[in-house]
Structures are given as structure tokens and as C-alpha cells.
Amino acid sequence: MKPISKLSHLLVIALCFSWLPLFAQQAPGAPKPWNQNPNGMRVYLQAGLKTHQAGQHDYPQFLADWSKILTEHGAIVDGSLHAPSAADLENTDVLVIYKGDDGYLADSALTAFVKRGGGIVSLHDSLCGPDPAAFAALVGGAKKHGDVNYTLGADIPYTIVDKTNPIMQGMSDITIFDEAFYNMTWAKDPPIHVLATAVIPGTPSAGAHKGEVVPQIWTYEHTLPGGQPARAFVWMQGHTYANFANPQIQTMLLRGIAWAGKRPVDELVNYKPPVRKGPAPNAGGQ
Fold first, then answer.
1. In angstroms, rounded to a whole number, what is the distance separating the alpha carbons of residues 67 and 48?
2. How far apart are CA 32 and CA 221, in angstroms?
3. Within-domain flag for 217
């Protein structure tokens, strides 16, 4: 058997990701994916190329994993490894961003999406860019690219400051090994609503910021000039990809996504797929 060529590998990767737009952009009359909720909220996952060390910043794996997770929880999912276009966002309820330095990609399409009331969920360093004030106007807080503003891998101890918030239902004051940011540009009018804070650990990169108490999880409700009310949910961790599988974190994210999409906060968490009669299409096929 001949070894698979590099070109073949690239074709396989392209085919693996090519099915994603089928969730949200079916041709008229075309059959829907058998397990898709026809009334689900529409979520666009914006990821990026893998960076950092193994087990860190695994944006492509997030795109693959959370396409499945969200579909299984009743969402209609689309996504890509690049910034979505205006057409991509036209029928989207929530844009979930897990991509480093996405503040560089803030453009008119994203602003128009938020202006019409679209929701944003920002994960880890998605809120980093050249103009933190501009991105903070969309998600409530941001950090400037190039500044030393990270703890690197360390224990991040959460203190839930709003235990009554439905997004944080069942969330305890856990400690996860991840990364925190501390030098933030915050939106002021309106301000963010803090859900959880963390004490910045004493790592070499944290320097004099050791011991500061900084918001790490928050919501942001605002209205851009001339626009509709919009929502954003931010979780600043995700440096260590395994933390996405933590049951408390995963449930919190599902609730945050639903909330940002102006849906009942437990819509994704409590979704029960309909019982299908007979085998799924291609079950047991070749």
C-alpha cells in the first residue's frame, strides 16, 4: 500500500470540516441532519489554527467537539477557522469565539451583528487585540495585544460572586489549572456584571499583580448606538483545553450561550432529543 500523500491529508482535513456549513445552510428541500433540532438556536463557532503547546489553545479541537456538543443539546451549528462574513452571521443568534487575538478581526460585519442584537460568547484570549476599548464595547472587557498580561499555567481559584445568577446554577468555588488575565480595559457605560472573580497567583509573569482580585467570568448587556439590545458572556479561561470537559464549566458555558442568544438559560442544558424510530441514517453502513 502506498503511503498517503501530504495532499491527501489536506483533502481529508478539508472534507472533515466541510460538513459544518450544512447544519445552517441547507438547500431548500434538502434533508436535515437526523439529530438536529429544527427549532434550535443558531450558533456560529469561530475558531482558529492550533497554537501553544500540546493541550493548550486547541481551537480546531474546540470546533470539532463543540459542534457535536451543541448539536446534541439542541442547537443548529455552523462554524469555521476564519472570521465569519456578514452572510454567515445573517441568521446567527450567538457567535462563540475561541480564537487567539480575535480583537484584530473586529470589523463592520461583527459590529453590525451586535447592532442588530446578536449575542457574543468570548472564550480565553479571544478578547485580545490592538484596540481593547473597541472590543470591550462589544463584550464588556478586553486586553491589549503585546502587553505582559497573563499568569501562564497556574491554579485559578474561582469565587462565585453572584450565586443567584441562573448561568452559575450548580457552579461552586472550584480551582482549575489554567491562565488568568489581570490588566483589562473595561466598558463603563454600562459596566459588566461580574459572575466570578479569581485571585491572581504569584507567577513570574504576574509580577506586582499577585493577589489582585480580577473578574474572570461575566455578562454584559448593552445597546450600540442606533441598535438593538445585545448580550455577551465571557469566560476568560480555556488556556488548558481539558477544562472545557469539566462538567461544571461545560454546563456553565451551555447556559452562557443560551443566555447570550436571548433564549431560556436552561434551553441547551435541558434539551431532550426526540426519540427516533428506527436506526439513524447510515447506521452500521460502510
1. 14
2. 34
3. yes
CATH number, domain containing residue 116 = 3.40.50.880
Q: Alpha helices of the chain — where are they, by DSSP H?
A: 6-18, 20-24, 59-72, 86-89, 108-115, 132-139, 247-260
Q: Grid coordinates representing 34?
A: 437526523
- Classify residue 284 as left (phi > 0), alpha (psi -120 to 50) or beta: left
Partners of 196 in beta bridges: 160, 217
| 236 within domain boundaries | yes
Q: What is the CA radius of gyration of the chain?
A: 19
Question: Which of 64, 78, 62 minimizes the C-alpha distance to 125?
Answer: 62
Instruction: Report how many domains make up the chain.
Output: 1
β-sheet bridge partners, residue 240: 56
Residue 50's alpha-carbon distances to 61, 114, 193, in angstroms, are 8, 27, 31
* Closest listed residue to residue 254, CA positions, set 272, 239, 233: 233
Is 90 inside a domain boundary? yes
Domain hosting residue 242, numbered range? 37-145+183-196+213-260
Residue 120 lies in a domain: yes
pLDDT for 282 beyond 80:
no
Q: Which three cell numbers stand for residue 226?
A: 442606533
> What does the DSSP 8-state code read for residue 130?
S
Q: What distance in Å separates the CA atoms of residue 179 and residue 190, rounded to the nearest whole number?
A: 27
Sign of CA dihedral 127, 134, 139, 216: positive
Indicate the burial class of 6 (C-beta count within 10 angstroms; 0-12, 13-18, 19 or more): exposed
pLDDT tens figures, 206-217: 999 999 999 999
How much of the chain, in percent, has pLDDT values that exceed 90? 70
**Peptide bond preceding 157: is omega within 30 degrees of 0, i.e. cis?**
no
Residue 136, CB-side half-sphere exposure with 13 Å CA sphere: 18
